[in-house]
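BUG: 3D viewer hangs when loading the predicted structure for this chain

Environment: internal workstation, default settings.
Expected: structure renders.
Actual: progress bar stalls at 90%.

Input used:
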Amino acid sequence: MIIGVGPDRGLGAQLCKRFAKEGLGIVAAGRTQAALDVVAADIERSGGKASSFVADTTNEAEVAALFDYAGADVDLAIYNAGSNTAGRILEMDADCFERSWRAVCFGGFLFGREALRRMVLRKRGTILFTGASASLRGRAGYGAFNSAKAGLRTLAQAMAKEYGPEGIHVGHVVVDGAVDGDKIHSRFPDADSRRDRLLDIAGIVECYAFLYRQCRRAWSFEVDVRTSVEPW
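Structure tokens produced before the viewer hung:
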């Protein structure tokens, strides 16, 4: 199951397609039915198994319904939801700050908890969260996003430490930089001219696959990925 699935040339959609190739039945979840249906249909045409489910990550009942739909044998759950919220502190209203936190951190809690409830019964499963450089450090103009992503990362650490002994592998992928996908190209028409600074989606997806395939006696919690020219 992967939530935070949007355009076909986006991280969520490509994660769905990559893990379908591993033989997993995919539930593609997100906010837009049409986009989800495109991804699911493409997987089905390629011989995989996929379905779609519209859910708001900040709605407890909808997240629970998503997992009920997926069934009790969810082996992999990826939380890829949340958008990059910009704004200076003095110019930001409380609702903006809270919306960022709810979409990133609170939604991650609801999603992770529902996954854990099912995986703990089977004593196996993998939960992966998408992070960013904001997960690790604050940046001027991004206070809401920084705090939400940092909160998600420490939440994921707590889950990993609490439920690792019960067979649940919880991981966090720090995506440090802009992704070479539909979103960045729609916002910046000249994006092709600086592709060396844009993260390759297929390469990012392999980081998730790496964590998923790890042996229980050699688990990683975190992988960070960036281009060769990204300053860090």
